[in-house]
Amino acid sequence: MRLLVTAGPTREAIDPVRFLTNRSSGKMGYAIAEAAVDRGHEVVLVSGPVNLATPEGLTDGAAVESARDMFEAVRDRIDGCDAAIFCAAVADYRPVKFQEEKIKKTGDSLTLELEKTEDILGSARPIFGFEGVLVGFAAETNNLEEFAWAKLEKKGCDLLVANDVSRRDIGFDSDRNEVRLFFANGRRQSLPAASKSALGAQLVEIVETLVAERGRNDGMME
Ligand code: CTP
Q1: What range does the domain containing 199 cover?
Q2: Which residue owns the Cα nearest ligand 1 atom 27?
Q3: Spatial separation of the C-alpha atoms in residues 183 and 85, rounded to whole Å
């Protein structure tokens, strides 16, 4: 299968030397991309800035900075993919105005006005017209299950992978993770704490099953 993976954080520039970002390391997305290459799939990796080596054997890749760059890179590559896994921790807001020159500390306080970024996962169905298997990630600190079901439905996902980022021992920036899976057919599954590379391989296998099921359903509709 052909698989698109987004990974890492984004950077939203404030001025030439400053940006807004988050704690994502990109490890989960890279682990998924590596596992998929190992299992013989064509992998397209769209990555924000990370300190990780680019996996060998990618079919295509794009290194991006901002949410807008990531949106465009995904839009230009998602066509023809059987599955898309949106693992990136995309900034939800960016500064309304990029200051061309470095902001000087003239005032006692500074207010930054922010605007929403493009919702890449939320664009997959309505804007990109993507019809393959769609997998979203959710990082939650509270009400994980309730938010997961709502996000799955709102974004048109087949699978939502949720992790509890209030725990410091797993998740963001850690080598290990523990996730709960919520499927569009109402099924739930927990993947116990494991290395991100072991989880990546499990997730790729699950996505393979979803792609095969979708193929069978499409065949029945014809
Ligand atoms: N995502 C995206 N584009 C954005 C924001 C998020 O593609 N601008 C994707 C992430 O890659 C992830 C999923 O959306 O797969 C969930 O991101 P999250 O920030 O948890 O969800 P939001 O829908 O932004 O909702 P909220 O922040 O309110 O929980």
Answers
A1: 2-96+112-221
A2: 92
A3: 14
Q: Does residue 102 form part of some domain?
A: no
**What's the CA gap between 207 and 202, in Å, rounded?**
9
| Cα dist from 74 to 71, 124, 192, whole Å | 5, 9, 30
Nearest 5°: the CA angle 149, 151, 156 is 100
Q: pLDDT by residue (tens digit) across 31-51?
A: 999 999 999 999 999 999 999
Centroid of ligand 1 to alpha carbon of 119 (angstroms): 7
- Give me the number of domains the chain comprises: 1
Residue 169: strand, helix, or coil: coil
Q: Residue 144 is part of a domain; what is its CATH number?
A: 3.40.50.10300
Closest CA to 58 of 29, 28, 34: 34
Sheet with strand 2-7: strands edge to edge: 60-63, 42-47, 2-7, 83-86, 133-140, 159-164, 176-183, 188-195
User: What is d(CA 90, CA 88) in angstroms, rounded to the nearest whole number?
Assistant: 6
Ligand 1 — pocket residues by CB below 6 A? 6, 67, 86, 88, 90, 92, 117-121, 136-139, 151
Domain-embedded: residue 104: no
Q: Encode pLDDT of 141-154 as tens digits.
A: 889 999 999 999 99
- pTM beyond 0.70: the answer is yes
Q: Are 21 and 12 in contact (CB under 8 A)?
A: yes
> Catalytic residue at 22?
yes
Strands 42-47 and 2-7, how do they pair? Answer: parallel
